[in-house]
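Researcher: Please translate sequence to structure tokens.
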Amino acid sequence: ESSVGDLEIDLASRSAVIEGRVLDAQRAPSLNVMVVVTPVGSLRSDLFKTTITDLNGNFRISGLAPGSYRVFAWPYLPRGMWQNPEFLRTVESLGKPLVLTEGSRVGSELTLLPEVTP
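Model: Translation complete:
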């Protein structure tokens, strides 16, 4: 006979949202650029999110779990590079830190970062 212990699952009922705008060095809207949200202190692939800005440089990323994140905006980034721990260490200081709580909606203005070459 086997014994089964208690299993406690904590589900956040409302995910968080980050929305904002990306501007270039001249403060003009950056259209069609990649916005990447990376979790701080975790490599769980489901916590990494990306989107592309619209024609006005606006973006919206929803479905985020509560926690600490860094948000980046690049003209282009090779697929999956944002999940590489070595790469993240080199760019960590460039990301905008955000702390999300359950159901929060956070606005953020980002500055376009220089293009990354692998």
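Researcher: Any highlights?
Model: The longest helix spans residues 85-91.
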